Amino acid sequence: MLSELALDLAGSFRPQQFSNVLWGLAKCGFKAPAAWLGPYLEQAELQLHHFQPRNLAQLAWALAAMKAQPPRSFLANFLAECSDKLSLFKPIDLAHTLWALATLAVTPPADWLSSALAACSAQWQQFKPQELSITVWGLARLGAGFRTQLYPAHPHYGLTAELGEDGLAGLMAAAAWQVPAMSPQQASTLVLGLAVGGAVLPPQQLQALAGQVLLVLRNSAASCCSQALTTVTWALTKLQWTPSQAQGALLLSLLQQHQQQHSLSLRQASLLLWCLGKLRLRLPADVMSQLMAQLQASMHAAEPADVVQVLVGVRTLGWRPSEHWWRRFYSSSSSSSSSSSSSSGSLLLEQASAVAAQWRLHQGRAGDCEVRGRYVRALKFMAAEANVTQLLVLSWQPDAGAGG
């Protein structure tokens, strides 16, 4: 096999050959077992100080494409070698290295991440659309913050290094130039990275970014998947976006289009409903009824956090379900939680079911108000327990291209 031949010859490889061979094997779909990867990287580690930035980036991309976790000793030396050369990395090298480290869930030291931010800031205007998109996503996943002032590590996001005012200004200028040329996935990955990185953008700048991204989704309707729409909506909500009337109408039309095509998964539909509630955007009554019927029919496969998002969306949008809807909804969602191993998930559903039952039993105005208050308190408790705003961040994986 090629992999066995490569391992036999690794002792005579030059730095570029190490990265080229591993890249080629990754492109062929090779999944390197630990027994093969360890000896191969041992040989590469002996020459790491001779690797050029392009070789380091290509090697990292190949490891991530294979989903292969390198030994700790190699990773430590790899990060040290990159740190010495980050100022020499071109945008494509930075993009592939940061994407790879984020994909492999590596946690680089704060000073390493600060150096990476500085290297990116010096070249924002040279990044191509795909490079900019996965770089921002990778930095955010690695713990970088995109804020205008330097703060200590943020306890919610776990940020360990900050971009600063000049760096953010350069990034947003590059985004304004490159977003119109992005695909829906690239644009959604960019705004997701900004949201995860805790960016705080001026309202006008955020409005302009949102308008560009929504136009990308509209103009690429054929390739705009429901995942991209959901990611954009969640990220803009997290960035504290206040949509204009035109932007809100465009977002609702895109959502309506996907709903009519039945392309929304349960997770996507429930998260979009939560976002609509936060954004104070209301679907037409007939579309809302269709969406809620679709959610109701899918609740047997729901996770507890999906249930929470639906309930929060119902409350914030002011949609009043019928008794029949409540009965079917909780019957399905409770059965789904019976197979869940999450004790907190069962507790959430117990709370929600109890409140819904009380809501149905109380007919008087005073009783209805009392139950409504208890319902709201239960929703706040459930939202805190489920950490619903982080669901998409944990599951979204952008495409990094060929890596060559």
Kindly describe this structure:
With about 400 residues, this protein is mainly alpha-helical. The protein has 3 domains: about 1-90, no CATH class; about 105-220 and about 230-240, no CATH class; about 265-404. Helices cover about 70% and strands about 0% of the residues. The protein has helices at about 1-10, 15-25, 35-45, 55-65, 70-85, 90-105, 110-120, 130-140, 165-180, 185-195, 205-220, 225-240, 245-260, 265-280, 285-300, 305-315, 325-340, 345-360, 365-385, 390-395; strands at about 145, 160. The longest helix is centred in the last third of the chain and has 22 residues, at about 365-385. It is globular and about 70 Å long. About 45% of the residues are buried. Mean pLDDT is about 80; it is low at about 150-155, about 335-350, about 355-370 and about 380-395.
Radius of gyration using CA atoms only: 24 Å
Q: How much strand? A: under 5%
Read across the widest sheet, the strand sequence of neighbours is 1-2
How many helices does DSSP assign?
A: 20
Which structural class should the secondary elements be placed in?
Answer: mainly alpha
Number of strands: 2
Instruction: Report the helical percentage.
Output: 55-70%
Largest sheet geometry: 2 strands, parallel
Query: Low-confidence segments, ≥5 residues, pLDDT <50?
Result: 150-157, 337-351, 353-368, 381-395
Count up the domains.
Answer: 3
Order of helices and strands: HHHHHHHHEEHHHHHHHHHHHH
Shape label: globular
InterPro entries: FAST_kinase
